[in-house]
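Quick one, tokens below. Sequence please?
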């Protein structure tokens, strides 16, 4: 998993409450178990018209936001089904951070397992960050995970809280498999000891 330490980039404003995982990546894209290629389907029902052409009114189709790395979203982002394809699609598109007042629990957990930083902020701070994001490509946000700060284009700072264990996993780029591999020497030592003391097993 790619490490997350600092990130500076364009933040796309998505001021919609209750964006569910089906809106993030619709069901027709769930046939694959690969984590790549899903970026094309990200927000597809809002991003494309019925004939498949880009919807010019959707934020990620606007020139200023085509290379967005951050999404500033409404309340309760990632609700609905538990599909892990949702963070896969965000990551494949290039989104490394989502900021909201609240997230659905399963989506929130899946973000950390895939190298995406979900940041919870107060409604007042979200309003400030949404205002920053609505300025377009000339106004970038900077995320500093070690300092737990979001820095706006005008020098304003929003601090955020995060579980220390999850923070460390992102900083070190450790998903569930990576965490297990860190313990590989201890696991091997235990197995060697078990074989020596209980050879009949």
């Amino acid at each position: 998993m790619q490490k997350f330490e600092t990130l500076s980039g364009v933040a796309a404003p998505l001021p919609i409450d209750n964006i569910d995982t089906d809106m993030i990546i619709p069901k027709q894209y769930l046939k694959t178990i690969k984590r790549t290629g899903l970026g094309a389907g990200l927000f597809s029902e809002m991003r494309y018209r019925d004939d498949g052409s880009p919807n010019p009114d959707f934020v990620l189709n606007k020139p200023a936001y085509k290379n967005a790395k951050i999404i500033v979203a409404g309340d309760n982002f990632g609700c609905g089904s538990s599909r892990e394809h949702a963070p896969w699609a965000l990551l494949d598109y290039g989104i490394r951070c989502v900021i909201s007042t609240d997230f659905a629990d399963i989506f929130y957990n899946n973000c950390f397992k895939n190298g995406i930083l979900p940041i919870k902020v107060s409604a007042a701070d979200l309003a400030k960050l949404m205002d920053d994001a609505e300025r377009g490509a000339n106004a970038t946000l900077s995320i500093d995970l070690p300092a737990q700060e979001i820095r706006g284009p005008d020098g304003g700072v929003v601090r955020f809280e995060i579980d220390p264990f999850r923070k460390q996993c992102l900083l070190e780029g450790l998903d569930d498999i990576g965490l297990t591999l860190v313990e590989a020497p201890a696991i091997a030592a235990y197995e060697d000891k078990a074989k020596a003391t209980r050879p009949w097993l």
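The first helix runs from residue 21 to 24. The radius of gyration is 19 Å.
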